Amino acid sequence: MTDGGSPLGELLATAGQVNNVRRNRADCIRCADDGKRGTVAIYEQAEVARCFRCGWYIYRRQLLRDLGQTIPAETPEQREARRLKKLFEQWRNDRYRGLAGEFCELGRKATIAKSALAYFPMWEMAWDHLAHFYHNEARLSAALDALVFEPGSRWLEEPVTREELSRQWRAHAAA
Ligand SMILES: [Zn+2]
Do the Cβ atoms of 64 and 58 come closer than 8 Å? Predict the structure, then answer.
């Protein structure tokens, strides 16, 4: 009898959902009639298995339930931590997209300004665009590098870790 900690491939085989498990591949019982082998990919870390041929998939949680095994319920603290993590990742994505868009727009204007200045070196507005870009380049670059935890950023004095950013985000959200 397997338990909740068994490798996913073992659980799949026990449940009769796949045949011939080998490392992270197995044969699909739903679509292997014509001899096509190894179409099920087993993602141990992600706790999901998926047949890339017929599209069938199953999560470890579901599999354990099918096998009649109980899984420890989430504690309120774990649920809260999961909820916060999801919100943080959402914020990180949105913020990155927003800042990257801003950076791209400033860069685009600066490029146009540069070529315009080659012909009209006295054009105030072009100088403004260029100055605006250089003024914001460091700020935006640092913010973007922090959002992806870039380890070797030349815009940050020291790298920002996920924990640190998450802490700042929570402090900011609570304020
Ligand atoms: Zn299949």
Answer: no
